[in-house]
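Notes from the pairing session

We agreed to fold both candidates in a single pass and log them together. This is the raw record for the first candidate, unedited. Please don't reformat it; downstream parsing expects exactly this layout.

Candidate A
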Amino acid sequence: MSVAREMGVEIVRGVDGPWLDPSQLVVERELVTVADLEQPLNLGTRFDLAICLETAEHLKASAAETLVESLVRHAPAVLFSAAVPYQRGPGHVNEQWPNYWCERFARHRYGALDFIRSSVWYDEKVLWWYRQNVLLFVNSDLCRSRPRLHREGEIQKLRLQPASVVLPDLFVTVARRLLDLEQALLKGGDYVLEVDEHGSVYLTAGDGLTGNGARPHMTASVPRKRAGSAWNVR
């Protein structure tokens, strides 16, 4: 909100949950409404743009339609991103591919324009989950009335960009973790299994900690013999 103001936006409004710590705000407290986004939201006015980034995955799947309805109620354009399957994170309960959200916005005549990701895909100054997931959903009437948006829509029809893609950063993180587990199974030995706040498992040989900020969860013993051996977990 503060950055939007710096860029010349005159009217801003924020919405956050009951966990909001007012001391962390850099805008006036009265500009932020505390609400449960699993319930319908109506601020009584409309804006040019609504922004909802990496929020939807924290809401129950049963609230997905409600969230989308709340967003389209407030703006003809919605900058949106949400965690994909296996992205993981604290409080993630509904990780979905972008097509899942595209279908729900389409019921309100909002189409996805995917021209932002290509401009920031390799820009490491932008957090990777935004680079991977961000789309602009635009009401069809607005899209037709704005030449630049309409042109982007026509270009997408021609090149059929897939919405569900994974950034190498996420793929490598998940693949490396799986490789560590596979190598431990093949090598055998005693390990400490630790689980971090994202629900990710880390292995450390013996009794040491990983240093990943994970907490001890269980220990496992793998017989030192060929692949196919069973884990003894305690």
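Candidate B (folded immediately after A)
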Amino acid sequence: MVTINFGLWIKDHDIDDHYKLEGPVFRRWSPDGENDALKFSVLDDSVDIFLWFERHGYIDDSGFIRYEHKKFEIDPEVLPKQKKIYTGALYGKVILHSVSPAQITALKEDDTTNEEYIGLGKLVLKKILDPILSRFTRLLKHTYGQYWIEVYQKFDSRKLPLANHCHNLNMKWSLQTGESGKFLPGTKEIESIIINASSCEEHEYISQEEWFNIQNLLSGNFEPSLSSVFASRSNRLLEEERYSHSLIEAVTAIELSLEEFVRRTINFDQRLEENMRSFWKNPLPTRITLVASLAGVNTDDVGLSISGVTERNKFVHDGLEPDQKVKKFIEGLLRTISHLNNNQNLKYPDADNSNSLGFPI
């Protein structure tokens, strides 16, 4: 059996520094390292994967939790009293229950160019980590709306050597005998290429129950909907006060969410979809009114959504630049989209780290 530990920053390096958080934000709770790790089994249960976040930080003199990566001094009794709790890097480990003697020998001898070693590295990345980390970060970014998180970039030998990719993941191997070392299959280039890796309600951050539900979502092959991608992007642009761009993304998102909702409702029946063709020729406000109302969306949000479409049309067709007054229309659109996305309600948190204390009760 071989264990490979790893850790990586999942912050979006392209985002403005004011909104550049180190990891996901939880509310009144945060994962306690490996004690609260999510577990997945793959490759016929021959491999176990664990993912977790640590409780980085300390309690200041006023009783607030302050994030600090090098400290682990959080009193768990304080967690329920704090609205926003900041995490940091994503940690994890891969346990391979079936490894050949040749691969173990290559690890022990640090024979990084050995084909057995390289083969093991490609297996760990391509078959094990790439799929789960890509889906996990997409889910955090789009379904849970934490747009400051960067979607994990899968290994691509055209962009980065195998050893460099493993180096960026801080990968280390260990055996049951206690032997260990850095996991660097192949040849590492000297210069590592770097791949770009509040005002809202507290329920928009990740709760304890939702953290453990992520395991069920990923185990069930859940993928964020296309509408959620546009909705998350709209929320980010809204917070950055880029109203015209946010409005366009939100209207695109609701068009997609209407179609996704109807298709789920009729259970993807091809015959029924054929009969819906004439419906999609109706103006967007008509489609929103009918589908959202039947779906039980709050009537105020339906009205705000329609107003949002009107404002978008004024901008696109008449060149009238939206201002702050469209904020309530965008928020109505986003709430409607979340309701229509009934298989997983979307979240729209903010990334403002100007108050890292998180407003305790």
